[in-house]
Design brief:
- The chain has one domain.
- The chain is built from 2 helices and 3 strands, in the order βββαα.
- A 3-stranded antiparallel sheet has the order 1-2-3.
- A hairpin with a 2-residue loop joins strand 2 and strand 3.
Length: about 60
């Protein structure tokens, strides 16, 4: 099951929250600064029964769109 993760990062010396996606041993950090966008991607992955090994390609396409 795909889930959203939350992290703090420093951008220009300012702390910001970013969200990643995790499933089994696959993890992509810093997918979006918008939690709703990250949740939407996780839901799409879960609803589409995405194989974990496909996550990196799907996130790359998601970020480009």
């Amino acid at each position: 099951m795909y889930e959203v993760t939350k992290e703090k990062v420093l951008v220009d010396e300012e702390e910001r929250t970013v969200y990643g996606i995790r499933c089994e041993n696959e993890y992509i950090p810093n997918v979006s600064a918008d939690i709703e966008r990250a949740r939407h991607l996780a839901a799409l992955c879960n609803n589409g029964n995405l194989a974990p090994w496909q996550l990196a390609d799907v996130v790359a396409d998601f970020i480009e769109s």
